[in-house]
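Below is how a single chain appears once it has passed through the pipeline. First comes the sequence as given, then the structure the pipeline wrote out for it. We keep one example in the README because the format questions we get most often are answered faster by looking than by reading.
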Amino acid sequence: MMMKKKYDIYGLGAALVDTEITLDDADLKHMQVDKGVMTLVDEARQKELIAALDHHLVASKRASGGSAANTIIAASYFGCQNFYSCKVAADENGAFYLNDMQAAGVTTPSHITPPAGTTGKCLVMITPDAERTMNTYLGISEQLSVNEIDFTAVPEANYVYIEGYLVTSVTGRAAAIKLREHAQEHGTQVALSLSDPAMVQFFRDGLLEMIGEQVDLIFCNRDEALGFIQTDDFEQACLGLQKYAKRFAITCGADGAFVFDGEQLIQVAAPKVEPIDTNGAGDMFAGAFLFALSQAHNFGQAAAFANQAAAQVVTQYGPRLQAAQHHVLRADFFGA
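Resulting structure:
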């Protein structure tokens, strides 16, 4: 059993305030938006998209987001004690974001005073097939650096969790590498998500730098696994990942998940649901999985619980569940 430390997870990732809307494939085509991936845009392009989608925004809603943040908040609501480093600006969205973190019980660095600038924003577009497409303006989050890391808190965590999206930022990637190195020096396990097929396709070399010789745990989906190992064969992808991670979890949508616990590859079925929005499914999976590991459950149990949590989040709009939903899921699955 893992030794209990002050924090279960120390997360590092982008701080983005999400605006989620529903539209159809014709809208994406008209706006020349690539479907199903995260695309980085400048603020002018994001404003152009929002103007073009003005008739959709009546049903939109704002939420704090960012991949690792979604994971950290989910794990916190399930019962973990977590820490999160990010970069927000001294604006309305920045205050909204930090308040959301505090409400979830997540600790953030006390030495950071948000500077002037614009907090990152993500336009999340959901099509009728439940696929999520993201156009992201990183804003000040692109300047995330080692300055936002609390190095005294890292040894006090059982895991650090790093989102692969940081690979697009020079300073963010350097921060991820430094955090991974510091964690490994102090006996803190390192988990990393590959985040998105586009990150694997266009930034694979940077992801390899972030991983270093090997991390303890990689989270990815099937497409990311295949792209990262550069194969069309799923079995080869599973074998290939073992070079980069001691253990891993590959999500496969309705087909559940394949997890490798260091000794065996286990397929864990997913509940059958009708998805309406897949945004945040992988983030929720990782949060629930890490929570289960923090409670000394094995990989099979962790994956089964993570599948349940991800299945619930895709049946509603938005990347996160309400606080009470986490409590119900935990009680239904673990009996406590």
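Residues 78 and 326 are 6 Å apart (CA to CA).

See the next section for the split statistics.
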